């Protein structure tokens, strides 16, 4: 294992067979070595800085029906909500006062939020907060639509590829969705000039080490600016409601691998990681992550954006969330960074 880890550190990639061996053969000693090397890489580029993004979950309406997702179209138990433009601008106002310089607008693929309405939203936020980055995470759209949002000022886009294996992809999604289109979107976004984030759930039903090796090799090929990974967590009203959740241990291991593959990547310690373990996000940072995305959505709608069961931070006000997170980050010897927190290669431009 040591030889594989040293090769990964040196060459920033491995073959599919080697990645599979690194995952299947993992043990505590290998994990500790990986974390040590991942933290050293992160330290080299970003020091002890952790970037905060204000997450605004602005709609839980969705036309898609992903089998794992609590806000999928067929979930009749989901209580639907949609924030207005004014609600969203209020969130930004509050977030700006709390020190956020990135707003992440995330939602289901809500047909009411047409490309024009999202474009208007981006323009309005950028007009009022020109020193802030806007990240969109609203699913699959055409090149032209992505271009119009980019022209309106959107800086970044998060679209997890979910799995790079077409058969595994089909087992997680209905027939109307395809890996091919998901990947087309990611390449379009990159070509347009967004800072792009892909990613996947760890421990999604049917996932094995070969699938994960493909995910890692896809990440190597795309070279995204951000990678979002977190454990799959079942949501009781979905087809996967009785499946087993992904583990903290494997998620941390993969975070460290991704840091060694892309030393400059912006890598969040996700809310899902904080949900499966009370110290999950701190452990994520200690495995190589350097981003946290506290919730800025109004408390009244927090519980309704229920992608999975027992999601944390659904009761706290935005101010409490940021304070709690800052304290957690400081307690492990890191600090929250001011500013937009762009990818290093973008800042250099
Ligand atoms: N609609 C957009 C999209 O498809 O990218 C953004 C919203 S979607 C809910 C954001 C991410 O949540 C998905 O990419 C998926 O990886 C994650 N997610 C959904 N259900 C989950 C679950 N049960 N456990 C963990 N993560 C989940
Ligand atoms: Fe659309 Fe999850 S199924 S956001």
Brief overview, please?
With 349 residues, this protein is α/β, with parallel strands linked by helices.
- Secondary structure tally, helices: 15
CATH architecture tag: Alpha-Beta Barrel
What is the molecular shape?
globular
The hetero molecules present are: S-adenosylmethionine, FE2/S2 (inorganic) cluster
Task: Give the topology.
Layout: H1 2-11, H2 16-24, H3 28-46, E1 49-52, E2 54-59, H4 85-97, E3 102-107, H5 115-128, E4 133-137, H6 143-151, E5 156-158, H7 166-172, H8 179-192, E6 195-202, H9 209-222, E7 226-231, H10 248-261, H11 271-276, H12 280-286, E8 291-292, H13 299-302, H14 318-331, E9 335-337, H15 344-347
Parallel strand pairs: 1-8, 1-9, 2-3, 3-4, 4-5, 5-6, 6-7
Helix pairs in contact: 2-9, 3-10, 6-8
The structure holds S-adenosylmethionine and FE2/S2 (inorganic) cluster.
What does this structure look like?
- It is a single chain.
- With 349 residues, the protein is an alpha/beta fold.
- The chain has one domain: Alpha-Beta Barrel (TIM Barrel).
- Helix content is 45%, strand content 12%.
- The protein has helices at 2-11, 16-24, 28-46, 85-97, 115-128, 143-151, 166-172, 179-192, 209-222, 248-261, 271-276, 280-286, 299-302, 318-331, 344-347, and strands at 49-52, 54-59, 102-107, 133-137, 156-158, 195-202, 226-231, 291-292, 335-337.
- The strands form two sheets. It has a six-stranded parallel β-sheet with strand order 2-3-4-5-6-7.
- Strand 6 (195-202), helix 9 (209-222) and strand 7 (226-231) form a beta-alpha-beta unit.
- Helix 2 (16-24) packs across helix 9 and helix 6 (143-151) packs parallel to helix 8.
- The longest helix has 19 residues, at 28-46.
- It is globular and about 55 Å long.
- Bound molecules: S-adenosylmethionine (SAM) and FE2/S2 (inorganic) cluster (FES).
- S-adenosylmethionine (SAM) binds at residues 68-69, 106, 108-109, 137-139, 159-160, 162, 201, 230, 232-233, 235, 272, 307-308.
């Amino acid at each position: 294992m040591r030889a594989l880890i040293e090769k990964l550190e040196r060459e920033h990639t491995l073959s599919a067979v080697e990645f599979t061996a690194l995952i299947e053969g993992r043990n505590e000693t290998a994990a500790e070595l990986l974390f040590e090397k991942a933290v050293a890489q992160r330290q080299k580029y970003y020091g002890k800085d952790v970037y905060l993004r204000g997450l605004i979950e602005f709609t839980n309406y969705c036309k898609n029906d992903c089998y794992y997702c609590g806000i999928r179209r067929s979930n009749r138990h989901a209580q639907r909500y949609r924030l207005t433009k004014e609600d969203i601008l209020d969130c930004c106002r509050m977030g700006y006062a709390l020190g956020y310089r990135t707003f992440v607008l995330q939602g289901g693929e809500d047909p009411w939020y047409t490309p024009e309405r999202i474009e208007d939203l981006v323009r309005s936020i950028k007009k009022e907060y020109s020193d802030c980055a806007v990240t969109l995470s609203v699913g699959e759209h055409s090149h032209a639509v992505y271009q119009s949002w980019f022209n309106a000022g959107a800086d970044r886009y998060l679209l997890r590829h979910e799995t790079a294996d077409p058969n595994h992809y089909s087992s997680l999604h209905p027939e109307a969705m395809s890996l091919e289109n998901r990947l087309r979107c990611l390449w379009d976004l990159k070509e347009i000039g967004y800072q792009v984030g892909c990613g996947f759930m760890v421990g999604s039903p049917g996932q094995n080490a070969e699938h994960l090796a493909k995910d890692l090799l896809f990440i190597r090929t795309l070279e995204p600016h951000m990678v979002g990974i977190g454990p799959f967590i079942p949501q009781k009203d979905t087809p996967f409601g009785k499946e087993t959740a992904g583990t903290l241990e494997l998620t941390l291991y993969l975070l460290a691998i991704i840091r060694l593959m892309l030393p400059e990547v912006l890598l969040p310690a996700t809310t899902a990681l904080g949900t499966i373990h009370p110290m999950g996000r701190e452990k994520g940072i200690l495995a190589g992550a350097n981003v946290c995305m506290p919730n800025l959505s109004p408390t009244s709608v927090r519980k309704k954006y229920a992608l999975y069961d027992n999601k944390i931070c659904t009761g706290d006000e935005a101010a409490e969330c940021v304070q709690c997170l800052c304290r957690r980050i400081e307690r492990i010897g890191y600090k929250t960074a001011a500013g937009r927190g762009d990818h290093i290669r973008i800042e250099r431009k």
